[in-house]
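Morning - pyridoxal-5'-phosphate inputs below, output right after.
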Amino acid sequence: MCPRYKPVESPDESTLFPYHSLTPPTTADIYSARTVIAEYLPETALVYCEWLSTELDADVYLKREDGLPTGAFKIRGGVTLLAELAEQFRDTGLVAASTGNHGKSLAYAGRLFDVPVVICVADDANPEKVNSIEQLGAEVQQHGHSYDEAREHAERLATQKGYRYVHSANEPALIKGVGTAGLEIVSELPDIDVIFSPVGVGTSAAGYCLTVGEVADADVIGAQAAGAPAMYRAWQNGTLTPHERTETVAEGLATQVPFALTAGILQRRLDDFLLVEDNAIRHALRKMLTEAHVLMEGACATGVAAALQYGERLAGQTVGIPVTGRNLSVDTLQTVVDTI
Ligand SMILES: *Cc1c(COP(=O)(O)O)cnc(C)c1O
């Protein structure tokens, strides 16, 4: 059962399982990934947002990643990883830990490429996301009180069963895949000045750094929930120290541990990084719903909240904001609607 790939030792003490590769993808790698995923996924729309443009006195475009299957951008990474998966793992399959959307992405891609998938989630994971992972044909194992406990469970399973462990950040194929969204933006909007990306484990922001940042020379600005600032601290201090608490409405961003591959890319290329309070995330969610009639997850609204926090500094600029996902739980939607 012993996997035959050459493992790379973990640079952070918190991860029990060695990685497959920690070499950052290049912008050229992302161009290649774009031709691969074009076979399986549609390009997503880039839509002018009247409300945010007026609010910020800027030209604001939303990259509608919620239009992808699974309703979130992560599917780009899942499809890219499965499309190039080594033969030795096709029968044994994959294991991963997820707060929801990473799991949905791998479940969808596993079904597409006929590879078995096991997803580990915390006991209190968003039940709608858990259901949809199961509906896509993956096995779900609920374990522990947090994403990080579920992650350690997945790492143990990988060792015991010989599954291909798919980490949510330290996977060049995922960054390369999600980066394709940035290339689509650059093709349509080459004079973009700035893009705001929410940051959980940092694949989305890393993808924008390597595309919208490198190719269009735009500023790439990351945004993380103040209640879960692990990657922010890593970016600020250049360390990979875990952060004990994660408390935020943006469950898609709740990780205690910052990860080396994405942290390295963000440290090299991210122009600014904001922390956003939950009340500002809720405000952005509410406004996007009532003013722009766009439904998004808390994780996604974090990017909108960061743009609103930037405020006047964006006047006259061409701004991109990805709608990273639409899988808001009905309970959270209810509390948002109740406060309108
Ligand atoms: C995962 C996720 C994010 C954050 O992306 P990372 O790659 O973890 O930084 C943002 N929004 C949504 C909807 C997500 O699912």
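Note: Residues 72, 74, 101, 198-205, 252-253, 297, 299-300, 324-325 surround pyridoxal-5'-phosphate (CB under 6 Å).

O.
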